[in-house]
Amino acid sequence: MAQPPLTDPLRIGDVEIANRVLLAPLAGIGNWFVRLQARRHGAGMAVSEMVSSFGLHHRNERTLRELLRLHPDEHPVSLQLFGQDPEVMRSAAATVAEAGADLIDINMGCPVRKVCKTGAGAALIEQPELALALALAAAEGGGKPVTVKLRSGLRAGDRSGFELAIRLGEEAGVAAIAFHPRVANQGHSGGPDYELARELCGRLEIPVIISGGLDNAEAARRAYAASGADAVMIARGALGNPWIFEELTGDRREPPAESEIVGELLWVIDRAEEHLGEERAARYLRKFYPWYLERLGTGKAAASTLQRSDDLDLAREIVRGLGSPRVTTAA
Ligand SMILES: Cc1cc2nc3c(=O)[nH]c(=O)nc-3n(C[C@H](O)[C@H](O)[C@H](O)COP(=O)(O)O)c2cc1C
């Protein structure tokens, strides 16, 4: 059967998604306003940054207030959980469902030591029985479709993530797999194995979402075709570039004008302040500025003042000085 265009709707469990271009989970980044930004620019759905199932289970106040914060316009939305205890996962899934998540994703791909040493993230690839139990517990606890995002394996030549993905689909009733066909010890470098993703698509009846190496719209289209996947998940390619979603789902052909980049950055500053208050937002935004300034080709002086600024009004003034703002939204 011919692969549908990226603009076709996609169904995951009972959730209807308007198109096949999704924002990937991004730790420390994928909060409600970054997800909303992706949606404003045409993404069919965004997945949250990973949230600790333990933090939710133990009712950590900041985790609940900040990481479970949703915007009414971002539905459908998927919240990603990580952890390695099925009972804790069951309780965390109930909490995220109550907070309004439409889908629950479980992280089985994070290669970061801090996460893996607890037995969560990519470490679950080595514990397939536990991985299946976690997926079942999340489905029971949350009553929402559960998806899993994972790597193809742990080290070169290892396909244990691929095998686990099949078992998750067949034995744990997972509603979709987000597949990052790089092995865990590759981190985020090296070419993803889209052929292996194609093999997975042939083995699973549920949707397979391809992740990895989708740096720009052209690369995303190529990965979609090469893998035969059901959807694409944009990660680093979306940092400071929400226009990638319009390129893939709408009729944007030209890169954003200076005024659009300035308008977008001002929008991000306002939302960050709304989310975290001025003091924390000023620090948080230091991560965001370089993505936008690079696109604007901004000089070093403005960039370094922005990076050091604790004053958001000053930051806004500097950004306005870079061009007249215009905020755009996908039609
Ligand atoms: C800064 C950063 C944070 C990430 N955080 C998460 C995360 O919380 N959960 C997850 O499943 N993957 C996470 N990933 C992996 C991405 O979702 C994606 O699979 C990976 O970056 C490969 O896609 P790319 O090569 O197109 O960037 C993260 C990646 C980056 C660069």
What does this structure look like?
With 331 residues, the chain is an alpha/beta fold. It has two domains: 10-249, TIM Barrel (Alpha-Beta Barrel), CATH 3.20.20.70; 258-320. The protein is built from 14 helices and ten strands. It has an eight-stranded parallel barrel with strand order 3-4-5-6-7-8-9-10, surrounded by seven helices. Strands 1-2 form a two-stranded antiparallel sheet. Helix 7 (160-171) links the parallel strand 7 and strand 8 (176-183). The radius of gyration is 19 Å and the shape is globular. Residues 24-27, 49-50, 80, 107, 109-110, 149, 180, 188, 211-214, 235-237 line the site of flavin mononucleotide.
Largest sheet: 8 strands, parallel, barrel
User: Which topology of the largest domain does CATH recognise?
Assistant: TIM Barrel
The small-molecule ligands in this entry are: flavin mononucleotide
CATH superfamily of the largest domain: Aldolase class I
From N to C, what is the helix and strand string? EEEHEHHEHEHHEHEHEHEHHHHH
Shape, per Cα inertia axes? globular
Bin the helical content.
40-55%
Q: Which architecture name of the largest domain does CATH use?
A: Alpha-Beta Barrel
Our count of helices gives: 14
User: Structural class, from secondary structure content?
Assistant: alpha/beta
Distance between the termini: 30 Å
Low-pLDDT residue spans: none
Q: Give the rounded overall mean pLDDT.
A: 96
Tally of separate domains = 2
